[in-house]
Amino acid sequence: MASQSTPLRVGVIVVTTAWDKHKDATIAALKAGKHVFLEKPITSTIFDGEELIKASKNCEGIFFVGHICRFNPRYLFNPLAHW
Q1: Which of 7, 41, 73, 82 has its Cβ near the most Cβ atoms within 10 Å?
Q2: The domain 23-81: what is its CATH number?
Q3: 61 with 35: CB under 8 angstroms?
């Protein structure tokens, strides 16, 4: 645990907010120089998705999109969620 004299340094941000909030949170994290793991879908509109991808190309952090919802217990025990 970091002490008060040692600031906590965060290198990776995981964005799992509501879809319509993904773009702003992700762009802010990338502009801050953080690596970002973004839950799918990346945005709620194509326009926002294109804007987010464009912004990710101009940042130092690594931008990664993935699907973590399958690890949620609601999906683990749903027979329709397995293919």
Answers
A1: 41
A2: 3.40.50.720
A3: yes
